[in-house]
Every structure is written in C-alpha cells, then in structure tokens.
Amino acid sequence: MPPLFRREKTNQVSDLADRLLREGRPGELEKELSRFDPGRLRGAERASWHHLWGVAAFRRGDRPEALRRFTEGYSDCSDSMDIRFSLAQELQHTGRMEEAFRLFDACEFGSLSGGHAMAAARYAYLWGEFERGLSYLDPVLAAYDQLSIVDDHFLHMRNLPFFGNTWATIGALHELRGSLDVFGVRR
C-alpha cells in the first residue's frame, strides 16, 4: 500500500491523555488510566501508560508513589526515554544522585525534547557535575548547528530551548568549572 494510504497506528493511552487535556479534565487521568490493564498493552502504549501513571501520582503531589510507579515502569519498559528521565528526576528529588545521574547519562537527549536536556543540565549544575551538564547539552548544540539558525521563535517551534537560555547555562557551567578561557576570557 502506498505510504499516502497507510494508516498510522495510534497510541490509545496518549490519545486519552491528550483528549482529557484538551477537554480541561487532566485531573481525571489517573482514574481513566486505572481502567487499563497494562499487561495487555504493548510497545509504545505500554510505555505511555507507565509514564503517565507515574506522572499522575506526581501531579497530585505523591512523590513517593510517583517514584514507585516510575521504578516499576522502568523495570517493565527500560527503553522508554520518558520513563528513564522521569525516574531520574524522582531519584534526584530524593538525593539519590548516583542512580539519577546513571539514568540521565543513559538518556538519549536527541530523542527527548531540548527542555529535557536543559533540565538535566540544570540538575548537573545543582549537584556540581559541570562536565555532565555540558554533555547533556551536546544534542541541543548539534541541533542548533544542523538548523544553522538560533532565532528563538524558530527554535521554540521545533521544541528546542531558546538559544539565550542554552548559552547562559553553558556559560554558567564553564564559569563554575573554571574554564571561561574557552570563551576567550582570561582571569
């Protein structure tokens, strides 16, 4: 069948979350997700269910439950970058930085949003892991280079962070590690 007529497989779990958000009913997500049997879901739907199940607990302020759900989701869907990143965030929140950074290090920031890379870089900044922070921004810089434009509106429309924010984060990381000489600044 020609690609024009091929029907894309939908993700009923993500579609449900999108619909609830559009209808202004995000608070019903957990209730609706509880109607699914995650053991019957496959692939992206299963990963979406686990991720959103953890997000639902996070949104209602139950961080221990969110951590438990993301941990369970990661055990079941370890290839999911969204689950991996969310679990790393929750581990960071509990101060378990070695585990958190191991997960952040394994994230493929090119397949996550630029906002994810910026968040990970900021966690690295907060915990004194300046080299890590810079490495998390490499895919963002590669995207800027590939696009050959740093106009903020253009970048925002492509789910990339504003250039000024990225540049400020890079500058802060270099300042903190004492390497502003890469910018031509001598002390």
Q: TL;DR of this structure?
A:
This protein is mainly α.
Defining key terms:
single chain, 187 residues, mainly alpha, Serine Threonine Protein Phosphatase 5, Tetratricopeptide repeat, 2 domains, 65% helix
Would you mind describing this structure in some detail?
With 187 residues, the chain is mainly α. The chain folds into two domains: 11-99, Serine Threonine Protein Phosphatase 5, Tetratricopeptide repeat, CATH 1.25.40; 108-179. It has ten helices and no strands. It has helices at residues 12-22, 29-33, 43-59, 63-76, 81-93, 97-106, 114-126, 130-147, 152-157, 163-176. It is globular. The protein starts with 11 loop residues before the first helix and ends in an 11-residue tail after the last helix. The model has no long low-confidence stretch (mean pLDDT 90).
Produce the secondary structure layout.
Blueprint: H1 12-22, H2 29-33, H3 43-59, H4 63-76, H5 81-93, H6 97-106, H7 114-126, H8 130-147, H9 152-157, H10 163-176
Helix pairs in contact: 1-3, 3-4, 4-5, 5-6, 7-8, 7-10, 8-10
